[in-house]
Amino acid sequence: MSQAGVALREALGQGHIGFVGGGAMGAALAGGVLAAGLPAAQLRVADPDPARRGALAGELGIETLADNSALLAASDVVVLAVKPGLLRPVLAALRGDLARPLWISVAAGISLQTLGGGLPPGARVVRAMPNTPALIGAGACGFAAGAACGAADREIARALFSCVGLAWEAPSEALLDAVTGLSGSGPAFALALLEALAEAGAALGLPPEAAERLAGQTLLGAALLAQQSALSPAELRAQVTSPGGTTEAGLARLAAGNFAACVGDAVRAAARRSQELGEMGAAEAPAPGAGRVATAPGKVNAPAGDRNAHL
Ligand SMILES: NC(=O)c1ccc[n+]([C@@H]2O[C@H](COP(=O)([O-])OP(=O)(O)OC[C@H]3O[C@@H](n4cnc5c(N)ncnc54)[C@H](OP(=O)(O)O)[C@@H]3O)[C@@H](O)[C@H]2O)c1
After folding, report:
1. Is residue 105 domain-shared with residue 39, that is, in the same domain?
2. What is the pLDDT of residues 165-191, one digit of tens each?
3. 311 CA to centre of ligand 1 in angstroms
4. Residue 23 placed within a domain
5. For the chain, first and last CA: distance in Å?
6. Are residues 150 and 295 in the same domain?
7. CA distances (Å), origin 17, targets 26, 156, 178
8. 108 CB under 6 A from ligand 1?
């Protein structure tokens, strides 16, 4: 059992997690939790699509249900993983003790206040902002817990999202807009850099496929180096920048093009848009997007862009 799995087992005890929505994110979280070592008997997924239920049951070996209210009755933690526009109708249609479970929503742009509006007063609610790499277990998630949540609830949320990557608890919900701008939209920014690197390499004569693989591995390696080193990214960068060398020549061009300011503008623009969408209710509006990643059972190689058109 992984460290995240141990933490989740400790926080959850013999409790059960139910996922409302077995799409890309619901399936990724369920798969991550299973891979971390939680027994399949402690997980259930509800989804209206029989084919998806069959795929989830077959590939993950967990119980699947068609009825969200039956899932609620059997769950101590309910993860809301439907499209943001469906969240309110899904909550309104639920029958049962809505005050009992811990609710965890991953719906982009749906505030704790909106979530609480569909639940009894005092309901324990966590709002999370995962990102697309969670679909391959390499996510970065920020979450904020509602006022009624206790330490154990926060720990369950942290452990759950740690099963699919990094989980960070924001001290205030307002910071989730910044999380959206940075790690929610960030995968697309990183992919834009990957594309630019690959195109530049191809323009210099590298076979395009080799350029793309070299670019991807370079970004992956740099990120892992930054994660695993005691040095800061700036110190690591200085280490590989010899005076008069190749890297210095390239970095000078990045500085001349205001690279850092441009990236900062991108993150701020995404955070601002997240705030605007949140104020509008965000239900159907686009938020941080998924690319061509589809690892959910039964959906491998499905066009994620279609399925995540709301994102
Ligand atoms: N994918 C990401 O990278 C990502 C990142 C951050 C946040 N999120 C959030 O995660 C949530 C789910 O996104 P997703 O990408 O997983 O979407 P998705 O692949 O469309 O999954 C949603 C699932 O919910 C099912 N569903 C529809 N109505 C339902 C109902 N009444 N009860 C139970 N399930 C129902 C859908 O079935 P049908 O397809 O048959 O309607 C679908 O299987 C969204 O709120 C999104 O904002 C996703």
Report:
1. yes
2. 999 999 999 999 999 999 999 999 999
3. 10
4. yes
5. 32
6. yes
7. 11, 10, 28
8. yes
